[in-house]
Design a protein that fits this description.
Layout: H1 7-17, H2 20-35, H3 40-51, E1 55-57, E2 60-61, H4 62-73, H5 80-88, H6 91-100, H7 112-119, H8 124-130, H9 133-138, H10 141-154, H11 164-167, H12 170-185, H13 195-200
Antiparallel strand pairs: 1-2
Length: 206
């Protein structure tokens, strides 16, 4: 499946495939938040009941896409309200905030604390969402490497991780090589998607 490139693309999918009641709710929600931004937390939380949870595209459901679009329509000069949506949200709301990061305008790495928090969880959906384009662009090298290693430990396919072809380096290969050695010594299988990274850095090849 081709990844959604922009919020406009995501909106096109929603308008084409979402149920009629979801379309009606989203239009009303947009107007409600435009009139009063303090309505955002309750609107954001209500998307699940109003839009349903039908899978649409790019690993996102109707409620999550609706939340992403609401966030993408707003300006975020102050990222603190966005942090609050993530901080106080349930797992679905946290996932929507993480998925929205690549579709909204932020001041550089302002939302990296959200990404870092998600990477500390054991929720594979949150970890994978944290490693979208925003995380790939703004995570420091050490944090990005450890995130890749956590993906391997948690069974998250590396082809779902943004930026890996550009950000893989010899240090990441060393870490993965250590992981592979430990797995083999313990008689356990090795995920196939680590081998292409090791092959790029032959000094660490087995």
């Amino acid at each position: 499946m081709t990844a959604i490139a922009t919020a406009r693309d995501l909106e096109a999918v929603f308008l084409t495939d979402a149920p009629e009641q979801a379309l009606t709710w989203l239009a009303a929600a947009r107007e409600r938040v435009s009139r009063n931004r303090y309505e955002l937390p309750s609107v954001f939380a209500g998307a699940g009941r109003a839009c349903g949870r039908t899978p649409l595209t790019d690993g996102l459901r109707t409620d999550e896409i609706a939340r992403v679009l609401i966030l993408a329509w707003l300006s975020w000069r102050d990222p603190e309200p966005l942090m609050d949506l993530y901080r106080w949200g349930d797992a679905d709301e946290k996932h929507a905030v993480l998925s929205a990061l690549e579709h909204i305008e932020l001041d550089g790495a302002a939302a990296v604390p959200i990404v870092e928090d998600a990477l500390r969880t054991n929720d594979t959906r949150l970890i994978a969402a944290a490693l979208g384009r925003y995380g790939a662009q703004h995570l420091p090298d050490p944090a990005y490497r450890h995130a890749i290693l956590k993906c391997v430990f948690c069974g998250i396919p590396l082809d779902s991780v943004s930026g890996l072809p550009d950000r893989a380096d010899a240090e990441l290969a060393r870490m993965l090589d250590d992981f592979v050695r430990e797995r083999i010594a313990a008689g356990r299988s090795v995920p196939e998607d680590v081998w292409p990274i090791l092959a790029r850095f032959p000094s660490r090849s087995r």
